[in-house]
Write a structure and sequence with these properties.
The structure is a homodimer.
Chain A: E1 9-13, E2 16-19, E3 37-38, E4 53-57, E5 63-65, H1 67-72, E6 76-83, E7 106-115, H2 116-123, E8 131-141, E9 148-156, H3 157-160, E10 166-171, E11 174-175, E12 185-187, E13 200-206, H4 213-216, E14 220-221, E15 232-233, E16 240-245, E17 251-252, E18 255-264, E19 270-276, E20 284-285, E21 287-289, E22 297-305, E23 309-319, E24 342-348
């Protein structure tokens, strides 16, 4: 009765977009209840009794897989962090439009499925295959046009053939929860979440660049406010970290306080996390835990504070490709890929 | 299965502070599930089998009421808006410390109970009674001292004797939910929520000013950052309004959109709500609905927008005492009573 538990933070309901209360998550495997929900459209209506997955297009042997077929193929299970490309959008200055995600458009857990590569091999891709288009069952209107689109994204053929790009059918040991893509969801480790198409309807191999609006209009970095100059596609996750504890604007007493958080990257591994408790004048390397290929790492530091006052605490991660969080995030018009050094402020009294 | 519902927004768990997702509330009576939770300490342990309410102090006939006694006295039910004094604290500039409430540290519903006045009359207040101290069962340490305090607040005798100040035992027709004060909660209409003490343990009439930290340290407006000069107590709610729809930073199409929200005050009634869709250059009076003595009112406006672009939408309420929201809120060090004109920004594309 006296138990206090965190909830998803509601950003919108039509479509449903809700954020993981990341500061209050103690476990590194997020349950369905607290896994962030991100939708472009309302939830699809699927008829499971007639569910088949076509793999077609630029192939020699088009396939129609039943769920049983797919589940009988060799599988693998991976702990993968999924981060929405719009995570932390609300922190951009100048502010941008769209869902005002704070630090919680990110979750992770164990996805099990068959490598997409296996399905593509069974269909015998033809010479000249360039991309693999994955279409979801979710459809609807966009604000920028009256046309109806399904949510569809392509992957470059190399990423589609990567052995860890999965067509997943399990999450944390159970069927994938409906809101997260049941019965099948593409899982693309290291890429922002928009690539991990939910409710997979069809997989099509193409020999030219796919140009759906979810990769030619949305999920594009537009560095200019008023023109599309310099546009580049959103793909792998940037190196990033988030302070979970203390909370921003928390009031503390003098003494020892644990500062902790998470760090992750879409290239290689996190090799270093530094924190500063003096607004960036000095930095200390902190302890890393649970380092895993596709998951976030935990980090923590015991901060001894004797003097009352206001403190700005920063966290900065570095990955094995030498990428490091910068003070200034890469501003872009649609607000993707925010990875500025994380910052909170506390008062010690 | 496809239903999307809003949740409380978690601000902290120790103690539990969670915010009502006010933008997504359609009903004007908030259910327990979505009523904001605001605590100073962890939840108290109460033994209900031995629950008695003492009314003592500067009285001729100290009383010890059982719940049955209280429930057998003449009762009244009132729809009351309860707003945390820290509601909207996160909007202050410069920013202040403490729970970073956005627009949802506010809820309303129907509280039923016996007027506090009835209990005071049964105890026969003596001449010279100045204040009534209401103590809750919640106790704990504060960050500014090592002493243990219970949560206790006093009311001036006139407010305590107001016929609508209730010792409530029902919320929305059922027992008061535990997290909101079961079995008895003081309900002080028109005052910020800190006055509505939960889990009432004792009521004491005093003939001098009570000086507990929850009214001499906290719940005080300190207009200066570095001194206590000009400090005044936090009491009645300021005139206020919140835009619920559209959402801040929402992307809309051209056409007609409903702009709606709520407005409330701690003095008299809301008599006017104006909105501006051009950053405050022009104002339009909007339709008010559900005007009730102690509740918020709903307002709405059909906005026809033909031209693409960015729009700043403002809402401004006026009450029957001539109080009106100002552009600049009254900044104060602890961040109470924010009532600046509400403001969102949308993009029409």
């Amino acid at each position: 009765m006296n138990l206090s538990k965190p909830y998803l933070t509601t950003r919108s309901l039509q479509p449903e977009n809700q954020e993981t209360p990341i500061q209050f998550i103690k476990n590194n495997i997020i349950s369905e209840r607290l896994f962030f929900r991100r939708n472009h459209f309302s939830y699809p209506n699927l008829t499971y009794s007639s569910y088949w997955l076509p793999v077609n297009g630029h192939v020699r042997n088009p396939q129609l897989f039943s769920l049983q077929n797919i589940m009988s193929l060799p599988s693998k299970a991976l702990t993968v962090v999924l981060e929405c490309a719009g995570n932390k959008r609300s922190f951009f200055e100048p502010k941008v439009f769209g869902e005002q995600w704070e630090k919680g458009a990110i979750s992770q857990g164990v996805w099990k499925g068959v490598p997409l590569k296996t399905l593509l091999q069974l269909a015998h891709i033809k010479e000249g295959a360039l991309e693999v288009v994955v279409e979801g069952y979710d459809v609807g209107k966009r604000t920028d046009t009256d046309k109806v689109y399904s949510y569809a994204r392509s992957l470059p053929i190399e990423k589609a053939l990567h052995e860890d790009t999965l067509v997943a059918y399990e999450y944390n040991g159970g069927p994938i929860p409906f809101k997260h893509g049941f019965p099948l969801r593409l899982i693309v480790p290291q890429w922002y979440g928009m690539a991990s198409v939910k409710w997979v309807k069809q997989i099509t191999i193409v020999n030219r660049a796919f140009s759906g609006p979810f990769q030619t209009v949305d999920y594009v970095y537009y560095p200019k406010k008023d023109s599309d100059e310099g546009a580049t596609p959103v793909t792998t996750m940037r190196v990033n970290s988030s302070i979970k504890k203390p909370l921003d604007r928390e009031i503390l007493t003098t003494g020892v306080h644990e500062i902790n958080g998470i760090a992750w990257t879409g290239k290689g591994l996190i090799v270093k996390v530094e924190i500063s408790t003096d607004s960036g004048q000095t930095w200390t390397e902190v302890k890393l835990r649970n380092k895993d290929q596709y998951s976030w790492i935990d980090w923590s530091y015991d901060w001894e504070v004797a003097e009352k006052g206001e403190y700005t605490i920063l966290s900065k991660a570095t990955d094995s490709h030498g990428r490091v969080q910068r003070k200034e995030p890469y501003w872009n018009r649609k607000g993707y890929g925010y990875n500025g050094i994380d910052r909170i402020k506390v008062k010690v009294e």
